[in-house]
Design a protein that fits this description.
L-amino peptidase D-ALA esterase/amidase, Ubiquitin-like (UB roll), about 400 residues, nine-stranded mixed sheet, six-stranded mixed sheet
Length: about 400
């Protein structure tokens, strides 16, 4: 990273006990409606004023009804005041009835929270192809008692989970125009996670002043470098989105690419998204280890990300990490089929501090040392293609016996 970029990154600070409600003017809630047997399964994110909104959606050609409704809401005037979300049922592949149910969720949320229907976004996650149990949803929307405490944030975080083993949240702050700008995030994601969005929902709140078109541009760029660089199992789902709300409550001047602190805002957004993306990768179904792959020396940054994703997405690499086997042949194979132009004679690879290949030739590392390193909770794989200036990262997890167990009985 250049010195200038490092300086910008250093202006972003982590808020240890922060959450979605740390930014001014946001409240959340979560309740158990009965869609799932246990745990909260219905939640809401609420802004005290309609917030500028931007979203990025799954690239699957089969998209669930809530995505259609949310896209329609945002396209109306690029503002959202409330996000209603349920887990346990995806409302996907449910035909006209599913669309009606999503519109009903939007209408009831608008009524309960005294806003316009087009200022409500809808999100669902869970089993595909089942009709929504609307009698449970509609009788609990008015039981969502919003607030801005840590307990409220925890209740919402639980309400969006499916096979996740923990709630994902993050919060960072930066100074812009002399104002403290906060950004909070909550997400779910554990299985069906593949670059270009998998079964994951991510919600971000910020009190920054930035209009929809610039927020959309910023989000798309950052998603490509964070959420689209994680993979668990290579599957992409039907439902999922990253949604960011900016309600202007911090009082800074409107952010645009011409603003002197634009790069600070971009760093704030990227840092928050990267934190959440890594938590999703770490919580892959059955996972025991987080894998971070860094690629240097590629023809471009995009090519570097492609190679990194190819490595971290390889089932053979993932199982080798699970089995603490320093099988560098699987890494080099994933580089070879990544689709990126390489020189097969100039590749360096390492796991942690252990160099495996230098100029594509094996080094004299010891298997015992490599095995010991691979027992760590986080595994770093570094690759240098030595043919350009491109740099990229990707994140994933190991592939374990438990992944098969979880997914063999997902509906039971």
């Amino acid at each position: 990273m250049s010195g200038e970029n490092q300086t910008v990154k250093n202006k972003v600070t982590y808020v240890k006990k922060g959450s979605l409600v740390t930014p001014n003017g946001f409240k959340v809630a979560g309740v158990h409606s009965g869609v799932k047997r246990q745990r909260n399964d219905l939640g809401v994110v609420y802004s005290e004023r309609p917030a500028h909104a931007a979203a990025v959606y799954t690239l699957s050609q089969i998209q669930a009804a809530p995505l259609k409704v949310t896209k329609e809401s945002i396209q109306t005037d690029e503002k959202i005041q409330a996000v209603i979300v349920n887990s346990g049922n995806a409302n996907a592949c449910t035909g006209e009835k599913g669309e009606q149910d999503a519109y009903t969720m939007r209408a009831m949320t608008a009524e309960v929270f005294s806003t316009d229907p087009h200022h409500v976004a809808v999100a669902s996650t869970g089993i595909i192809g089942l009709e929504m149990p609307m009698n449970k949803i509609t009788t609990h929307i008015d039981q969502l008692m919003i607030g801005n405490t840590a307990d409220h944030a925890a209740q919402f975080g639980e309400s969006i989970l499916t096979t996740d083993t923990f709630s994902k949240s993050a919060c960072y702050q930066a100074e812009i125009d002399g104002k403290t700008i906060s950004m909070g995030a909550a997400a779910k994601g554990s299985g069906m996670i593949e670059p270009n969005m998998g079964t994951m929902l991510a919600f971000l709140t910020t009190d920054a002043a930035i209009e929809g078109p610039f927020l959309q541009t910023a989000l798309k760029e950052v998603v490509d470098e964070t959420f689209n660089c994680i993979t668990v199992d290579g599957d992409t789902s039907t439902n999922d989105m990253v949604l960011v709300l900016a309600n202007e409550a911090a009082g800074n001047d409107l952010l645009t690419p011409a603003h002197p602190d634009w790069n600070v805002f971009m760093s704030l957004l990227k840092t928050t998204c990267e934190d959440i993306a890594k938590q999703i990768a770490q919580d892959g179904e059955g996972a025991t280890k987080l894998i971070e792959v860094t690629v240097n020396g590629a023809p471009s940054d995009e090519d570097a990300r492609k190679v990194a994703k190819s490595i971290v997405g390889s089932s053979l690499v993932k199982t080798a990490v699970f089995g603490t086997d320093a099988n560098w042949g699987r890494i080099i194979a994933a580089i070879g089929y990544s689709g990126v132009e390489i020189n097969p004679n100039t590749i360096d690879t390492a796991i942690g501090p252990i160099e495996l290949l230098k100029n594509s030739q094996p080094t004299n590392f010891t298997e015992e040392e490599a095995t010991t390193y691979l027992e760590e909770d986080t595994i770093y794989i570094d690759v240098n293609l030595n043919i350009g200036e491109g740099v990229g990262k990707a994140w994933g997890c190991d592939l374990t016996y438990d992944y098969v167990r979880i997914n063999a009985s997902y509906r039971s």
